[in-house]
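Support reply, case 0932

Customer input (verbatim):
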Amino acid sequence: MKKIVFILMIFVLGPFVVRGQTTINIKTALQGIVDNLEQLSRRLTGNEELKIRKASLKNVIDLALAESNDLKNKLIKIAYLEGDYLDLRDTLLKELGNHSSYYDSISMALEKENSLSKIKNISTQLKDWRRIVYHPTLEKIVNFLLVFEGRDALQLAETRFNNISNDLKKVNNLEVIKNSPLNNLLAKAEESLNEARELQKASALIILKSDENDTQKLIEEELDKIKETYSYFLEMSDWLKKASKK
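Our regenerated output:
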């Protein structure tokens, strides 16, 4: 009996990860630099302020390029895309390429410029460009990544469910299993998985329509259902732990 319970525990207690999306927070970095420069400019000479502003703006551009490359790599790594999703991924990659070219042009202009007023203008232009051009694209990319990371998380949960279900069937005739809450918990996990699957389908359709708010809402609901599924797996593991000690 203890051996059977232990085997079931291996599948129920196996590791699971729901990956989150991380990007470099350029907006915060940029605002912090702007605030610091405003304070410094009140007590620096023109040449000192020029050097500091150029160095700070160069750091912002480097961070922005790093963020762009990070997003590009994440998009490229998404597997099994086809049709409209492949086309959308290619469009987003092209937009990121255009953004990188813009950063390169700003960096070249910054390197050649020695006028404090023009450096300030470049900083303002970059800030406005990110707000008007970059941030809308960033929203689309983040949602696209989240949809397909949600897909991967769902597939992982489905694999775990199938493993647990198959092993539970092998011992379902045992009296201790018949009288346990395991089958009921597995049924609840299946229900949550089915709901997560429908939410995944809906979010995958909406990203093609560029509805950011609805996409984020559906993704959040999908991940909640996946977490709920794992909560039932954990309840099963708790019961199995106690049963293995009897």
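We compared this against your earlier run and they match. Two observations from our side: The two ends are 9 Å apart (CA to CA). Residues 2-18+148-244 form one domain. Please reopen the case if you see a mismatch on your end.
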